[in-house]
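[stage:ingest] chain + small molecule (magnesium ion)
[stage:ingest] validated
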Amino acid sequence: MAEISVGSGSPFTPGYGKQPLVFGGHHEVVAELTSVFETYDFGENHSILISGLRGAGKTSMLGVLRDAAKSHGWFVVSDNAGAGLVDRVSRSTMPQLLESLTGSERTRLTGLQLAQLGLQWTTERTGPEPKPLLRHQLAALAAARDNGGILITVDEVSSGKTRLRELGRFALELQHALEEGLNIMVAFAGVKIDLDELVKQQHLTFLRRSREVDFRLLAPSETRDVFAQTVGLGGRAIDDDALDLLVRVAQGYPYLIQLAGDYAWRHNVTAPQISLADAKDAHQRAIKAVTSRVISRVWDDLSEQDQTFLRALAGGGGRRKMAEIADRMGRSSQYVNIYKQRLVDSGYVQPDGRGYVAFSLPYLDQYISSLGQGDATDDDVQPASGDTWNDYPPPEL
Ligand SMILES: Nc1ncnc2c1ncn2[C@@H]1O[C@H](COP(=O)(O)OP(=O)(O)OP(=O)(O)O)[C@@H](O)[C@H]1O
Ligand SMILES: [Mg+2]
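[stage:predict] done
[stage:export] tokens:
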């Protein structure tokens, strides 16, 4: 990690897809996948499906993996799911990678069907350009480095028909390459429900054995570490009370950690320490910004039924009995359960003790209540134990 000098701006990285300076949490999975880059002992890690909340760090995780893979000498291919994925990779990314090979790496490619690789340095042919096949290109790339590792990351996976069809085509090429014994790891990131759809496609057996990682919120201690370390790398310090407040504001939500940290950093940028006053200013502004940039969009994307469920959940201190929600909705518990499960899958709510369900996206509860449709009674009882957010309620505005 690079040291940043004071005056060069904030070390925080608010916004989608911005690689954080300090990637908090997820230590185990990062360590496990990094060890694959070192040992080539894949286990269940040929294919990783990263799902989770909007702004929870899926894209950043792909970046962390790419950095780790590169530092161990792996080839890295990255793209977004969507129309043209296979063509982009096979006509542009792969030829570029193959063309970047050193002379001695190239000599190992003799005997392979070079004309199928889409390379300029192999073209002494006349007539139309043959369509390069991704599986051959991957084989060539691997061969250039003695079956060297290749990490492929695909972001923005979603269940739109075009995307799924394209991903199916892409995954089929990978399936062939894996069957040839290539050392490939592929990491997909997207919304959980969509990845499940993808796995359903029958020829994609390797996807069925995927490692699934579901990104939610960071723990309080991990959140604290991100703030403290990021500020430190930025060349400043932070007062304890300011750090406490920022931790409570962020509620472990990565998007909000960066946003709140950034506001606190900028409030009085010439002071050597970030103070409680800076954190208080950041509090107001960060909640406002996350509400308008994230929470309101999440809300607008939800179906009417999902919204009805969440309204029935709102206003109870963040948590309610399922039976009570069914009552408030005037529906059977079976019906209500279907909506609960959908919302659990997309990470907006979580089961919380026997028969209870709770919001898991911070500030969604408050947002819904602010729409005027929530019920303001506070009948909440929460157990407090361990490294959980129960001990760090979000501060009042
Ligand atoms: N583990 C982490 N620790 C600290 N900050 C993080 C972490 N992961 C992500 N962030 C920060 O959170 C914000 C959102 O991250 P990112 O864009 O990776 O989320 P995402 O899950 O891909 O979102 P989306 O669902 O919209 O694609 C960025 O500002 C990023 O720097
Ligand atoms: Mg993303």
